[in-house]
Amino acid sequence: MIRTPLALSLAIALAACGGPPDNGAGGADDLGNMLVATNEASAANDPALRGALRDQIMVDPALVRQANADTVRPPAQPASGALPPDDIAARKEPAEKDDLRHAPPPGPCPQCTAARRALTLGSLAESQGAPATCVANVAYSASWANRLPAATPLYPDARVIEAAGADGRGCALRIVNFASAAPLQRLLDWYFTKAADAGIAAQHGIDGSDHVLAGATRGKGAFFIMLRPRKGGGTEVDLMADGAN
């Protein structure tokens, strides 16, 4: 057979390339073999390492007890929202070393029933005749306990539970609920004396275990104090001062 120059050139080119392509089958096999060889040489396939990873972990019970010794753990029971005991900082002498005048003997207490029905300090003020516009603007904050008028100040060892008040627009309203370690009679006499020193005549009423001291005078405002004994000793007090600046 006689080869033409073109056919001869194609034969030489194919010979130089090593023959026709094999559709990549041989290259894929080579790549797979390389990956297998690499994996077999990996440290993860080391028999000693594989054995160490698969073995059970040794645990020392004594050391386990010491683990996380400084970790903040939750309390064993929910935190209590109760007030601290009244006698936590009790003093042997009275809160003030002054000569107190005795409150008058108690009479009827028409305000007591309405006061017991009040669920909030605002409704307590409303039940005792505070103006509706002032009651509507009542704001709650313990700071109101420090803004009581001179005739009805906060008792020296008072533990404020809740306080509210309203100022402006003709309002000067203060309502405070607090607890004291002092006996009820001591608080009655103390507030009666303070009111008398301010020129306010106070009336004393009683209904069951509830005592009320109330008074009003033109230009000096009005006040209402409801006192009841606490279980375990001490006294709980609701104090309202209206318009006394």
Total beta-strand segments: 7
User: What structural class should be given to the helix and strand makeup?
Assistant: alpha+beta
Instruction: Compute the average pLDDT.
Output: 76
Alpha plus pi helix count: 8
Percentage of residues in DSSP E strands: 15-25%
Strand order within the widest sheet?
A: 1-2-3-7-6-5-4
Shape: elongated
Straight-line distance between termini: 132 Å
Helical content (DSSP H or I, runs of 4+): 25-40%
Compute the CA-based radius of gyration. 45 Å
Indicate the topology.
Blueprint: H1 5-16, H2 25-41, H3 47-54, H4 61-66, H5 110-117, H6 121-127, H7 132-136, E1 139-140, E2 159-168, E3 171-180, H8 184-197, E4 202-207, E5 210-217, E6 221-229, E7 235-242
Antiparallel strand pairs: 1-2, 2-3, 3-7, 4-5, 5-6, 6-7
Structure description:
The chain has 245 residues and is α+β, with helices and mostly antiparallel strands. The chain is 31% helix and 22% strand. It is built from eight helices and seven strands; from the N terminus they run H-H-H-H-H-H-H-E-E-E-H-E-E-E-E. Strands 1-2-3-7-6-5-4 form a seven-stranded antiparallel beta sheet, with helices on both faces. A hairpin with a 2-residue loop joins strand 4 and strand 5 (210-217). It is elongated. The N and C termini lie far apart (132 Å).
